[in-house]
Amino acid sequence: MGFDSALSAATLGLVAGGLIGGPIVKYLITKYNLKPEHAENQKLNYNNMNSDKYLHNRMNPLTIFFLQFTIVVICMTVGSYLGNTFSDVTGLNIPIYVGAMFIAVIIRNISEYADLHLIDMKFVDNIGDISLSLFLSVALMSINLTDIYQLALPLTIIVLVQVIFLVLFSVFFVFKGLGKNYDAAVMIGGFLGHGLGATPNAMANLDVITKKIGPSPKSYLIVPIIGAFLIDLIGVTIITIFINLF
User: For the segment 32-71, what is each residue's pLDDT rounded down to a tens digit?
Assistant: First the structure.
């Protein structure tokens, strides 16, 4: 019962984080007339920008897809091993995906600076979209609603209160603290996605917003590091304290 209740609340948060992130960011952008830096030079066609013409001239789409999938698997495998080794050596528990995140950053930058043409972001984005859909589907399928139907109203009220609080806090405090510019507005989408759901929600919000309005490199640097790494280190400490206190 307790596990199902927690999973249901988490899933409601995932859904809420994906639904409200975009509208809140659009509201902020419209209200303050925000635009990306050098917006006149950033009218991007993501389909063309994200596709690596070098790869497409030398490989067929299926081969490119398997190359990108292999790179993702390598990042996950090597990153998970390094993360587990780090935890064993230091005694600090870190999320398993943190190591994969850093390996991915290393591979991407090596590919760019050495002109290796290993990464095709269009295919990587597609893999990410499919993975996020699978993640959300599995999360929803794992809920046994028949066991927790009597908790539906309390859980809904709790999630609604959390949604209202996070929206007000993000608009009136976080947005202003981040500088009240376009990057700040985009990061609010990540903040709401992660605050109500998880890091995949945050990144999905960033992806939708930046593809429709314009890029925000600062958001893609800050949100994953904070949401996928630092917040977990702090969260473990806070959860441990509350467990011991209550």
Answer: 999 887 555 454 444 444 566 777 788 888 898 999 999 9
Tell me the one-letter amino acid at 206: L
- The answer to whether residues 123 and 68 touch, using CB atoms and an 8 Å cutoff, is yes
Q: Vertex 160, ends 167 and 233: CA angle to 5°? A: 65
* Nearest alpha carbon to residue 188 among 17, 21, 13, 15: 21
State the pTM of this model.
0.73
Closest to 185 measured CA to CA, from 15, 6, 7, 30: 30
Q: How many Å apart are CA 141 and CA 14, to the nearest integer?
A: 13
Task: Classify the C-alpha dihedral 213-215-216-219 as positive or negative.
Answer: positive
DSSP state of 220: H
State whether the Cα torsion 140-146-148-154 is positive or negative: positive
Could you identify the residue written with the tokens 């609340």? 9
